[in-house]
């Protein structure tokens, strides 16, 4: 299978994952493109005996995590400029809010999902949103299958409590 066929076959699914992770269309576009660039560069290292999409998802999740690490370092570096950090957070919140779906219930679910840390949010997105098995999600997140199950359970419990507070 050539690269164009792989992209065509997985682009919608990957883009949906990027939107789940980033919550902002512009950032999701960047993550989507960066993921494909890295995947194409590393295509020779792909183990053809395994499914392609989990391998591609792992690249996307790693790109996302790397970006978060860089962002945290940047915030620490700029901590002597608290006004700039506050402004960055405000603009990020505004862009996230502008991308949420207009239905009120879905907004509440999305907001509750955002409140979860990556530790719980990523396993939930991969297993529920991307319909991956616990084993596949564990391979992508580099944790064992049992831990994925545990984190998905904990994430669902936390989401339930957050949504109950919102009256849903």
UniProtKB/TrEMBL annotation:
Q: Which UniProt keywords apply?
A: Sigma factor, Transcription, Transcription regulation
Domain RNA polymerase sigma-70 region, chain residue ranges per copy:
6-72
> What is the top-level taxon of the source organism?
Bacteria
Organism, as annotated? Holtiella tumoricola
Where do transmembrane segments lie in this chain? none
A Pfam family of the record is Sigma70_r2
Q: Which family does it belong to?
A: Belongs to the sigma-70 factor family. ECF subfamily.
GO BP of this protein? DNA-templated transcription initiation
| One annotated GO molecular function | sigma factor activity
Q: Does the keyword Transmembrane helix apply?
A: no
UniProt protein name: RNA polymerase sigma factor
Looking at the record, the residues that make up the RNA polymerase sigma factor 70 region 4 type domain are 106-159
């Amino acid at each position: 299978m050539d690269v164009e066929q792989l992209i065509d076959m997985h682009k919608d699914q990957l883009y949906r994952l990027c939107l789940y992770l980033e919550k902002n269309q512009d950032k999701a576009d960047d993550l989507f493109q960066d993921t494909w660039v890295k995947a194409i560069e590393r295509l020779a290292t792909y183990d053809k005996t395994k499914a392609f999409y989990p391998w591609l998802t792992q690249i996307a999740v790693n790109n996302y995590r790397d970006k978060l690490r860089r962002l945290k370092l940047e915030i620490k570096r700029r901590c002597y400029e608290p006004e700039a950090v506050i402004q960055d957070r405000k603009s990020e919140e505004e862009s996230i809010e502008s991308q949420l779906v207009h239905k009120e219930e879905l907004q509440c679910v999305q907001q509750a999902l955002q409140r979860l840390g990556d530790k719980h949010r990523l396993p939930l997105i991969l297993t529920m949103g991307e319909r991956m098995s616990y084993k596949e999600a564990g391979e992508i997140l580099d944790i064992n299958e049992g831990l994925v199950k545990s984190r998905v359970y904990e994430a669902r419990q936390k989401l339930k409590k957050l949504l109950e507070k919102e009256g849903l």
